[in-house]
Fold Pyridoxamine 5'-phosphate oxidase N-terminal domain-containing protein.
Amino acid sequence: MSRIDTLEALRALYGHPSGRAVEKEFDRLDRHFRGFIEKSPFVLLSTAAPGGLPDVSPKGDQAGFVLALDDKRLAIPDRPGNRRMDSFQNIVENPVVGLLFLIPGMDETLRVNGRAEIRVDEDLLDRFVHEGKRPISVLVVTIEEIYFHCAKAFMRSSLWRPESWPDRSSLPTLGAIMRDQLGMAKTAREVDDDLAEAYRTTLY
């Protein structure tokens, strides 16, 4: 096996990006970036602690749940989760983050790189009240790089085409997986029922 372990070797293998690939990068929001974010119900958050493992965490809510505070800052509400706090622990130690926004059925995505801080300002939390409940905190990301990513990965994967999706019955449920991995005494159906109830009562 031959390993690529220098930047020179990497560029020798792949070459350099075209002018358009470089020129499409900006450092603040415009109307096209804003429009995409307003229609996106789902974003992936990437983080990494110094000397630690990276983490990618999904964030989802109703379309437009990520707000633009101004041309440089995005605000993402944090709803109840499992309290692992992998991403937020990383951010406390290393504020550099990456975001990948998706819109269902659209092959292009929006990438954002910048620095994040965890905020609990009362007025900011109040902007994200849903069903009478405020988020636990709000992640504010200051944009340093923002650009649209091409559609090739989604075209190759046929991600949005239902005819390409696997038969769901061919895959175990999360309850069945947890029962096996954790050696739980409950049946898979019972674990699935517990999960469904937790989702119902702690979604917001």
About this structure: Residues 166-202 form one domain. Residues 188-202 form the longest helix (15 residues).
